[in-house]
Model the fold of this input.
Amino acid sequence: DVKVTQSSRYLVKRTGEKVFLECVQDMDHENMFWYRQDPGLGLRLIYFSYDVKMKEKGDIPEGYSVSREKKERFSLILESASTNQTSMYLCASSLSFRVRSNQPQHFGDGTRLSIL
Amino acid sequence: KNQVEQSPQSLIILEGKNCTLQCNYTVSPFSNLRWYKQDTGRGPVSLTIMTFSENTKSNGRYTATLDADTKQSSLHITASQLSDSASYICVVSGGHAGKSTFGDGTTLTVKP
Done:
C-alpha cells in the first residue's frame, strides 16, 4: 500500500529559527509536493519536484526552500521562521506529473507547525 | 485565473440521509477532476477521478458527476454514515503545465 510519511505530526518553533520538515515516500514516485493548508484558503502549493535534485516553485514559495537529494525524500525548509508560517503542511507524491495524467496524489498526514 | 469553488462550505446531515456537494471551476484547459476525502487530522485521500469524456463515476456510496460544458461537478453521498464526516475537496487539473487547483472544501458532519 502507498505510504507517505511526514517526520512530525506537531512541531513548535520560535521566530527566526531554521525549520526542516521531512517527507518520505515508499512508492518510487517521480513527483513530490509540499502544500500548506489554512482555513478558508484550501491547499496551496509551495514547491514541487519531478526528479531528484529538480525543483519548481509553486504558488507561494516565498520564505521556503526545498531539497531532494534522494528520490524518496523531499524536505521543506523554512530559512527563518515567521509567525505567518504557522500552518498545516502536507506532503504528497504522485507517479507522473504529465498533463492529462490521471495519477492521484498520495498525501501524508500533515505536520501542524506553530511558530511562536 | 484558474479557480475552484465549492459549496456549501459546511453541511450537517443525519445518519442515513443522502447529500450532494457542489464544485464549480474555471480551470482551462481541463484535464481531470478529482474528489478527495480528508478526515480530521489526516491527509486527503482520493475518492474518484473524472476526465473530460466521463460524466459519472461511482465509488461505493460516493457518486461523482461532471458537466464539462458548464464546468460543474457534484459529489453525491448515499445513505450517509458517521464515518463520512470529513472535509471533501474538489481538485481540478489542467491549465498551465497540468497544475492542480484545489477548492477550499466542504465540511460534512453526519450526526446519529
Notes: Chain A has no helices and eleven strands. Chain A touches chain B at residues 4, 40-45, 90, 92, 97-102, 104-110 (CB under 8 Å).
